[in-house]
Amino acid sequence: MLQQPLDAVRARPLVRERDGGYRVGVVLLAAFGLTAFASMQMHDLLSPFGVSALEWVLLALFALNFLWISAAASTAAIGAMVLLFARRRRAPAAELSTKSRTAIVFPIYNEDPAGVFGAAEAVLDELHAAGVCDRFECFFLSDTNNPERALAEEAVFNALREARPELTFHYRRRTINRVRKSGNIEDFVHRWGDRYDYMIVFDADSLMSADAICELVRRMDNQPATALIQTLPTLIRAQTLFARTQQFAMRAYGPIFGAGLSWWSGGAGNYWGHNAIIRVAAFAAHAGLPDLPGKAPLGGPILSHDFVEAALLRRAGWRVEIAWDIAGSYEQSPPTLADMMARDARWIQGNLQHIRVLGAHGFDGLSRLHIASGVMGYGSSLLWALLLIVGIVLAAGEDPGLSYFSDDSPYPMWPVSDAGNGLSLALLTAVVVLAPKWLSLLLWTAGRLPGWSRSWRFPVGMFIELLLSAVMAPVQMVSQTIGIVRTLRVTMADGPRRIARADDSTGQARSACSCRTWRSLLQSASVPSCSMRRNLSGRFPLRFPCWPRRRRHSWSPSVCRLRPCSSRRCSSRRSAQFPPSRSLRSRRAAVWLPATRRAFRTPCSPRSGRARAATSLTDTGRLAPMTFTRRLDWCWPGWNTRSGTIALSAH
Predict the structure, then answer these.
(1) CB of 256 within 8 A of CB of 79?
(2) pLDDT digit string (tens) for 247-278?
(3) What are the strands, taking DSSP E only, across 37-83?
């Protein structure tokens, strides 16, 4: 992959586009109109005797914050209109007739090998059951620098290769981790990309069903001018209070935002780094990341690569689409609020680097808008904090010696307060901030909210999610503001921080040890979600509506084939508890994939969430560490001293 210049001439689109363009003007017009009206109301309330310099600063911060939330509300409103008048989702075709070859890519960095390899086996097993597995090959691209984890990956890979000889898996580990995940993908494209037409990039904690994968390949075959199609992942495997709240919000409000974003983006969509299909030839020719001028934290190699790669593909004339209507794309969320803060601390620097990308020549206007939204994803917390600080300073700095008497009149001149303006501003702010919630409630009432039935549990769950999000939002605001300040203060970025997965039992202790005392006080709101790692429906009196109860199953070696079991010993919860990651004993990798389309018919259905697939990757007993031998019959070299890569293959 050639490194693309940051400034270049934009190429003409490969095909004539009829979507996008004017549509974003509708969103911006609505956002700026709401912001102008709210700013005028705020101006009238600030001071009856004129606006001071500090009050002008307060008004500017208020306008910026309101513009951000009104743009999100406008996107949600358009998405609600799309869902209301859109056709019902049609079931994808059962067969996939294609001549293209697709690589399923799993980048790994010090992950639990059982979970990652089990997820890959689940995906390939579904494709094998659909009869299209011969068109797909799976790659494990490891950047693991922990020797014990590396041995565990190699051992589990050998066990997987022996257990499933009919599936095609490849394993490669880099010993020189250049440019992190983007460098890992770049190395794969450089070495083996010419063998495949498309690649589907996964995260270590993401999954996709066979129907979704086949639909992505079908759309890429039918749209030769499209370089990337991004799906809308749904959160799964939530077992804590915080994670279940995030999962409910994603299932309830995610389709609205996804439909609205896809409507006004058109062919200038975005890329979120995983659960997307990419045309390898276009990616190799036009998506090489440039180095930003200057030093860290805002210069050097681009850390948050996905937004920039989508902008580079769009600059070369390719279409980048967001497929909100494809179901069967899943990912996990951090289990606790502290883990979410650790993930934000890792991503803040990459998003702040996009400030220097905004002014690059040749980028599409919608691509700049996507990049700006990524910056505002964390910058809005800083603006909110500054707004509160300025408001407190204004309230504390009121002149106590202010006189309401003049020499001309013996009567006092009391300040006039317009209660009507204050009430209208408060109502407008509430409507805009809560727009995704009441829009999803209206769609649920009309029966047009995807995946939800008309059950009373939905509004109850929405009310509980509203209370919890109101409690956690200030804590996240303070944490992200501190992260931005720390990032801008350092001269060299710290190493990547490992994120606790949903099945990582040590994430809570690690996050607690890494936090300082004064910051731990702000994170005290996450104590309930940190401590309740057990099944909430059985151990906690608050039962969240529309979150499925667990069902006991006996697991068969084949993934996604479930047999109901009446015995209490066959517990899906015990199957999901893995031994410590450093142990090479046999383990079961629990992943979430629907056994049938009926299982995930609706989140409110009692059947939903029960299809929990599991596979045994190793035989009973201790696995012996693998010793590398130089075999000449490998399809790729086993060891490359120049780049420091280890390549294994299974056929």
Answers:
(1) yes
(2) 999 999 999 999 999 999 988 999 999 999 99
(3) none
Q: Where would I find the beta strands (DSSP E) of 244-364?
A: 276-279, 291-292, 300-301, 319-323, 329-331
Axis-axis angle for helices 180-192, 305-315 (nearest 10): 50
- pLDDT tens column, 399-419: 554 555 566 666 665 555 566
Buried b (16+ CB within 10 A) or exposed e, 341-375: bbbbbbbbbbbbbbeebeebebbbebbbbbbbbbb
**If 0-12 CB within 10 Å is exposed, 13-18 middle and 19+ buried, where does residue 108 land?**
buried
3-state secondary structure of 276: strand
Q: Which of 172, 100, 101 is nearest to 648 (CA)?
A: 172
Nearest-angstrom CA–CA distance, 56 and 62: 10
Q: Write out the H or E segment, with its range, that includes residue 572.
A: helix 572-576
Please tell me the distance from the alpha carbon of residue 600 to that of residue 594, in angstroms, as a whole number.
6
Amino acid at 73: A
Residue 174: φ, ψ to 5°? -90, 135
- Please tell me the pTM assigned to this model: 0.76
79, 439, 447, 586 from 453: Cα distances, Å: 19, 16, 7, 40
First to last CA, the chain: 27
Query: Residue 174 in contact with residue 142, Cβ under 8 Å?
Result: yes
Length of the chain: 651
Q: What is d(CA 139, CA 329) in angstroms, rounded to the nearest whole number?
A: 19
Could you read off the pLDDT of 339-350 as tens digits, one per residue? 899 888 888 988
CA distance 250 to 232: 10
